[in-house]
Amino acid sequence: MNFLKNYSCLLLTLLPLLTTAQVIFEDNFDGEQLNMNSWSYEEGDGCPNLCGWGNNERQVYNRDYVKVEDGNLVITASKKGDQYFSGKINSKEKVEFKYGIIEVRAKLATGEGLWPAVWMLGADISEVGWPASGEIDILEYVGREPHTVFTSLHTPASHGETINTKKTFISDIETGYHIYKTEWTEKYIKFFVDNELVYTFIPEVYDENYYPYNKDFYLLINMAVGGNFGGPKVDDAVFPAKFYIDYIKVSKL
């Protein structure tokens, strides 16, 4: 009996350690400023190479619109005069990984013209460009389509208005925080919202044209304004608008 009791105690002691060991990256945004060991700012309007960031977006990204407050990453979109401003960060060359479960707890910014997103790009994008790099859109929301979450993949075989996408109607998605999760393996990618499976992607062919996902990727978090996907109309009454990210965590499968 003592042996069983001691063994049970040992398991209870080791279990949290084993669980923690599976996490390869986690940011709970508990400090007073962005952790620059994990993140970098993206700034400007994308010019001269990608004016409008390749999507005719209206905002200029500026680090002043990225804050860490009350245990959240807060990205604010605002308008000053005739110009829109917002924030964008990425983990390129700082946090890169291949495969895993990516989990994000976030509260959306809402209003026509807003486009908050959490997504990933292939770490080789500087060498091969887009869409050869591949793109995984963990969460996209556009205010012009209320109560709807977009989960998408962009590949050389299908990108831009990709066929590898799912629109999911969730009536209360604008209310409070929700958990967005992506399970990424060498054979498939699955998307979940509040632990409900919403989309499974299995490619037609396992090659770089149809599945450019067998390599390292990095994370991006931003909120665009307008653009090809955000829509031509922007409701200026929604500004300033805030996109809250409570945490982001990457775990091994």
From TrEMBL:
Species this chain originates from: Gillisia lutea
Entries under InterPro entries matching the protein: Beta-glucanase-like, ConA-like_dom_sf, Glycosyl_Hydrlase_16
Entry-linked PROSITE patterns: GH16_2 (PS51762)
Coiled-coil ranges from the UniProt annotation: none
Gene3D superfamilies per the UniProt record, alphabetical: 2.60.120.200
A GO molecular-function annotation: hydrolase activity
UniProt keyword Lyase, yes or no: no
Keyword tags: Hydrolase, Signal
Annotated Pfam families: Glyco_hydro_16 (PF00722)
Record-given protein name: Glycoside hydrolase family 16 protein
Domain GH16 span(s) in chain numbering: 10-253
Family: Belongs to the glycosyl hydrolase 16 family.
